[in-house]
Design goal:
Elements lengths: L6 E7 L6 H16 E9 L11 E6 L7 H21 L4 E5 L1 H13 L4 E6 L10 H14 L5 E4 L2 H11 L5 E3 L22 E7 L9 H9 L3 E7 L5 H10 L6 E5 L4 H6 L3 E4 L8 H9 L3 E4 L5 H6 L12 E2 L4 E3 L4 H13 L1 H15 L4 H13 L1
Parallel strand pairs: 1-2, 1-4, 2-3, 4-5, 5-6, 6-7, 8-9, 8-11, 9-10, 11-12, 12-14
Antiparallel strand pairs: 13-14
Amino acid sequence: MSPKTKQNISILSITLGSGGAEKVISLLLKELKNDYNVTLVLFYNTIHFPVPEEITIKVLSENEPDRPFYLKMIDSLRFITKYYRFVKTEDIAISVSFLAFPNLINGIISMFNKSVKTIISERGFPSDNVTSKLSLYISKLFYPIFYNRCDKLFSNSVHINRDLKDNFGVKIPMEVIYNPIVIPEKTIVAKDLNVNTTSLKIITAGTLNKRKNQIMVIRAIKASALDYNFSILGGGDLQDYLQNEISASQLNDSVFLKGKVKNVNDYLLDSHCFVLSSFTEGFPNALIEAMAIGLPCISTNCLSGPLELLNENKEVDIKVGEFFIGKYGLLVNNDDHIALRHALDYFHKNPQEREKYSMLSLERAKEYQLDSIYAKFNQFIQK
């Protein structure tokens, strides 16, 4: 498009914090600026990821996002009004929202402004992405009302779309557009992994919470007779709990809580294997980023994402205590630390398999490069 014919597009999010959805937004902005007049609209002024200077940023509230619930409810009503006025005043042609509440606002906007195309994006597996029975009830009540007011929806997994359709009554057109990545300049040399090692360096990255289930990996290491060096990147509510478990298991010399780090790739490059132990995911950024570095990977076969990444979404039947050798990585059942122990020992004892899956990881990751994913995204919002 020439500059004179560029449409006005807004990207609506709660913040641009350090989450997976926010990283996707940051990457898409790099390409969107070339085709549109883009405004990034945030509820709160939290910006972790880089934003191109060509992008206009509009913040709806100068308050901190960590506010009491009743104040957040007041904020929410103000956001609806402010965003409606913004879309109308700035002649926004396309409004794209990420995550549940921005999506609901987009649905409300579409009821009163028929000229704007509203596109919503669900980033987590809906049935598991609620904190209580009340929030699940609210989701099942409001998703059909407001999501269905929008023009279309995209998510990052076929399983998310199926869940929205089957369990939340969402009927608008839906597509899957996977998370984009940028292949790092420096990646692991696969043949360097084809060496016998006394201690296998394994790594994971993610918030320290129940959903990420890092305790599963700690228990797998405890159950193994082999030697491991396990780094856990990230912070969260379960830090003290995990540290206590590490100490109780006498693994202080083997398992290390590294906390939040900025140079994640440096840690990945210094590892032999990546493990994702989650109970549930939307689309696991940490897994695809480890693959983009060239790490052989092991993951739980959780909904959603790992099966799509590691076995092209071909269904598998994994027996308790066993692991499955997928096309691009190894899969185990949720919370099966014995199976994970066997999978880890498999990579530990077979350096040639580490080399093989390092090359396969890089091959798979290339399919998710930013330019390819953006082309699909741009076609989706235009048609």
